Amino acid sequence: SMRNKMILSVLAIAAIIYFFSQFLSQVSLKLGDDSGGSKQAFFYKTSKLLSPLDHLPVFQLALQHLQQGVELKDNLLIWKGIGQLQDAIGLNPLYYQAYYYLGKAYIFYKYPDNEYFADAIQCFKKAAFLRGGNKSIAIDNIKILLSLWPLLKNDDRQFCKDLLYRNVKSFTWEEFNVFV
Fold first, then answer.
1. 45: which of 66, 74, 168, 176 lies 20 to 30 Å off by Cα?
2. Apex CA 149: angle with CA 145 and CA 150, to 5°?
3. Cα(147)–Cα(156) distance, rounded to whole angstroms?
């Protein structure tokens, strides 16, 4: 019984440490969202360190690197962001936003000589599949796929048509007007 009490005490201490680190990780993530520049990266990295299994700090770091890479036309930063988005997907394979932004990153990487075009389309399709009922994701995916229409394969064109057909009834005129 003394042994059981010791085991329960250790488990309770471990749980307290775990939840406290989760709390600090979320605080750091929020501070990162509210700040900018190098401070933002510091808070995201701190959040990732405190909660290594959380996909959100990795995702936020990726977006930061992608934004800098696109602004500076730096393929190394874009590639770093791509790797971080892949890591975020590894941590949470159902996080549709990571697929969506990974698709956009693949499009920007080495544009226009892009060998990752097919990967980008697959990412957009996966994001739409995971959140097909989300109107804003559907609209964003349809806009991207329509802008790439001449480059799409037949099955990708069909996917775009199906996505548009499934969602067109829920669009307002302002949302639909973008496609006209």
1. 74
2. 155
3. 13
Neighbours of 84 (CB within 10 A): 25
- On whether the CB atoms of residues 75 and 109 are closer than 8 A, the answer is yes
Distance CA 163, CA 156 (A): 10
Distance of CA 19 to the CA centre of its chain: 25
Residue 48: pLDDT over 70: yes
Which DSSP state fits 113? Answer: S
Q: How much is the average pLDDT of 41-60?
A: 80
Q: What angle do CA 149, 153, 157 make, to 5 degrees?
A: 55
Cα–Cα dist 40/37, whole Å: 5
Query: Can you tell me the distance from the alpha carbon of 87 to that of 105, in angstroms, rounded to the nearest whole number?
Result: 14
Q: Are 60 and 46 in contact (CB under 8 A)?
A: no
Orientation angle between helical segments 55-72 and 2-34, nearest 10 degrees: 20
What span, in angstroms and rounded, lies between the C-alpha atoms of 20 and 27?
11
Asked whether the predicted pLDDT for residue 112 surpasses 70, the reply is no
Total-model pTM: 0.74
Give the C-alpha separation, 100 to 131, whole Å: 10
Measure CA of the first residue to CA of the last residue in the chain; give whole Å.
74
